[in-house]
Amino acid sequence: MKKLLTGLTIAAAAAAAFMLLSPSPAEAAESKGSSQPSLYTFNDFMKVKWIKEPVLSPNGKKILFTMEKKNLEENKAMSSICSVSTETKEITSFTPENGRAYSAKWSPDGKKIAFIKSEDGDAQLWIMTSTG
Questions:
Q1: How far, in Å, are 6, 57, 67, 102 from residue 86 at the CA level?
Q2: pLDDT score recorded for residue 119
Q3: What is the pLDDT of residue 1?
Q4: Which of 14, 26, 27, 42 has the fewest CB atoms within 10 Å, counting from its CB?
């Protein structure tokens, strides 16, 4: 039962983060200079920031995740490592949005995070404090 609740908590947090980071139809219309909401276009869809690989911290107070967005100009996906507080919903970014970082994990005590960061095709393991 605990595993099911943890899975639901992670799914709910990922969905909430997705909704916070995605442009609304009204925002999409506003960026096009219109006051009327419109349907999402392909370009609007490509601006969506995707939440992937959510991992609950050992104490259950934060969720670590990969945030991915598409870069149409460079024809590639870019991703960064972030966390969201399960209590305050505050989002912390650990890596720049214009890079390629993924597969983040918590240390058993929750004091550090580890992730893969790829620059120029070379992937390296990074370890840093969970406070950023």
A1: 12, 10, 17, 21
A2: 79
A3: 46
A4: 42
pLDDT for 40-87, tens place per residue? 788 787 788 889 999 999 999 999 999 998 888 888 888 999 999 999
What mean pLDDT do residues 28-40 have?
65
Structural contact between residues 57 and 106, judged by C-beta atoms closer than 8 angstroms: yes
- For residues 111 and 99, what is the distance between their CA atoms, to the nearest angstrom? 24
Q: Which of 89, 56, 52, 86 is nearest to 70 (CA)?
A: 52
Query: Vertex 64, ends 10 and 101: CA angle to 5°?
Result: 130
CA distance 34 to 48: 20
Structure tokens at 100: 């390629």
What residues pair up with 56 in beta bridges, in sequence order?
A: 63
pLDDT of residue 44: 80
How far apart, in whole angstroms, are the C-alpha atoms of residue 60 and residue 124?
A: 27
- Cα distances (angstroms) measured from residue 10 to each of 72, 86, 93: 29, 9, 18
